[in-house]
Design goal:
Layout (H helix, E strand, L loop, with lengths): L1 H10 L12 E2 L10 E3 L14 E11 L4 E11 L3 E10 L9 E6 L4 E2 L6 E3 L2 E5 L5 E9 L2 E9 L4 E3 L4 E4 L8 E18 L4 E3 L2 E10 L3 H4 L2 E8 L3 E9 L8 E9 L2 E6 L2 E10 L6 E13 L5 E9 L5 E4 L6 H11 L4 E5 L5 E7 L2 E15 L2
Antiparallel strand pairs: 1-13, 2-12, 3-4, 3-16, 4-5, 5-6, 7-8, 8-9, 9-10, 10-11, 11-14, 13-14, 14-15, 14-16, 17-18, 17-27, 18-19, 19-20, 21-22, 22-23, 23-26, 24-25, 25-27, 26-27
């Protein structure tokens, strides 16, 4: 039983007490003094904390030829006694006529450079250039996913508020958990990803997101919504999560509207609404079939900004059972004890949606390519 409890705590955890609203300090509080902060090179350092946390650097590619790809490095620490690193890659089958090319491979002999800005492992390297404006990722970890990509930002990156972090804990001076997101929302992408069958040219647009969950992920968030929307002129990005009842089911939303060279708006006064849903039989979650995203705020010179992306999601790209690799009996107990049942629904509508943007009364509409996720955890 002790073994089972420890395994559950690692994989799914048990429910926390209800701490109440005072046990969370949303990053939204930081926006009272600064809506957002532009990223410097130093802000992109890996943290590699010695307590339970999950740190990710994720790259999304929307290629000019229609390809959609995600690559990701995960560095995690469990209870300060065990660290792991993983490389994930996913080439989405956007036509929906076959499986996705998905790989998740452990990394060995991983290390950071002295500055903590670059990362390496056997058959993998992630390098930030001297100017802090471009990442180059090369991986031969999996022969069915040979990666050679360079992401160059065309707009300053940002965090919301001062440091982009929401803090968890009943003592504000000594938080026991945190959640941070840093964004390069608008990048040019050059390079390829090679499978056993083909080499895919990934020239196009991309997004880079650095995230740190400084606590067990399912204790920090019960649900997530994410959108990456790219038009020829604009990028609209939003990340929203809702905490479990332990932290008063608090909604934390960060996002922005950008174009090349300019952050038009970035802040927390945004919203996501699942306007139509259907009950998914396999996961037993209310899968969205139509979503409305809204950004509301001001430019730096206090001009009103309002933006919307609203419409049907079309046929979903994928439904990911996060615990698929967990032994069945642990999965069952985890779900019944902790209420943890994580599934990710992924979308990229073939019928392009429209970004409707109004800045200081001037309206613009542009169709774009979208990648979106709706995640249910507990």
């Amino acid at each position: 039983m002790n073994w089972l409890k420890s395994t559950l705590a690692t994989v799914a955890g048990t429910q926390e007490p209800v701490y109440g609203p005072d046990a969370i300090r949303s990053v939204a509080k930081q926006t009272e003094s600064a809506p957002y902060t532009e990223l410097t090179k130093e802000d992109l350092r890996w943290r590699a904390y010695d307590y339970t946390n999950v740190e990710t650097q994720t790259f999304y590619v929307m290629a000019d030829n229609g390809s959609l790809v995600m690559v990701q490095i995960i560095y995690s620490n469990i209870a300060g006694i065990h660290t792991t690193a993983q490389f994930n890659s996913k080439i989405f089958n956007v036509k929906g006529d076959g499986p996705h090319n998905w790989h998740s491979d452990p990394l060995y002999n991983y290390m950071f450079d002295e500055s903590m800005l670059s990362f390496a492992a056997d058959n993998l390297s992630l390098t930030l250039n001297e100017e802090g404006t471009a990442y180059t990722l090369k991986s031969a970890v999996n022969e069915d996913s040979l990666v050679n990509l360079t992401f160059t930002r065309t707009t300053p990156g940002f965090v919301i508020g001062k440091d982009g972090t929401t803090y968890f804990g009943t003592d504000p001076e000594n938080p026991w958990g945190s959640m941070r997101h840093a964004f390069w929302p608008r990048c040019t992408v050059e390079g390829t990803i090679q499978t056993k069958e083909e080499t895919i040219d990934l020239k196009g647009r991309g997004v880079f997101i650095q995230a740190l969950q400084g606590m067990k992920p399912h204790h920090a968030a019960a649900r997530w919504n994410f959108i990456n929307f790219q038009t020829p002129t604009y990028t609209a990005i939003m990340m929203e999560y809702t905490t479990p009842p332990s932290y008063d089911s608090t909604v934390v939303n960060v996002g922005g509207i950008l174009k090349d060279g300019e952050i038009i708006y970035a802040g927390t006064t945004n919203s996501v609404t699942h306007t139509e849903v259907t009950q998914d039989a396999e996961s037993d979650w209310p899968e969205p079939t139509s979503i409305k995203w809204v950004w509301d705020g001001h430019t730096n010179d206090m001009k009103d900004v309002h933006a919307e992306v609203d419409g049907p999601l079309g046929k979903r790209l994928d439904r990911v059972d996060v615990m698929a690799e967990v032994p069945g009996f642990i999965k069952t107990i985890a779900g019944s004890v902790a209420g943890t049942r994580p599934y990710i629904f992924q979308y990229s509508p073939q019928e392009k949606l429209t970004l409707k943007l109004k800045v200081d009364g001037t309206e613009t509409e542009e169709k774009g390519t979208m990648f979106s996720e709706a995640t249910f955890i507990s």
